[in-house]
């Protein structure tokens, strides 16, 4: 499977129910990411077996796609499949969330937003990156 050259967001079909924390731990383990240099700025698990991740660059997205696509479906790997997401970029993903979802959901169902590798409050990110 080939990823479009301009993609920064991926959709992960998960083989098991996962929390955001569990998914991020698996992503870091599979892709050998450092916790102090996160290559993503948006992580959302709208359902327990689906994850949307926006990466800070096309290269970071492509690298993750290649790695996860190669191991998807193997025993012990939580990802059953990976593909290009419909929304691309932090702004587009936040705008979609703000338009379709509730910011009053419980924490485990809200997207995680990172600026320069540090988690920021969702309401601040929505105001800054997805103004209404």
Automatic annotation (TrEMBL):
It comes from the Eukaryota. It comes from Effrenium voratum. This is Uncharacterized protein.
């Amino acid at each position: 499977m080939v990823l479009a050259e301009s993609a920064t967001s991926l959709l992960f079909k998960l083989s098991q129910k996962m929390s955001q924390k569990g998914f991020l731990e698996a992503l870091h383990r599979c892709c050998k990411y450092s916790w102090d240099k996160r290559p993503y700025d948006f992580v959302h698990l709208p359902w327990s077996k689906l994850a949307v991740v926006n990466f800070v660059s096309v290269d970071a997205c492509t690298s993750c796609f290649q790695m996860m696509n190669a191991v998807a479906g193997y025993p012990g790997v939580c990802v059953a499949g990976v593909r290009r997401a419909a929304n691309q970029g932090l702004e587009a993903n936040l705008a979609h969330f703000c338009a379709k979802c509730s910011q009053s959901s419980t924490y485990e169902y809200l997207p995680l937003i990172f600026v320069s590798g540090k988690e920021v409050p969702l309401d601040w990110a929505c105001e800054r990156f997805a103004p209404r």
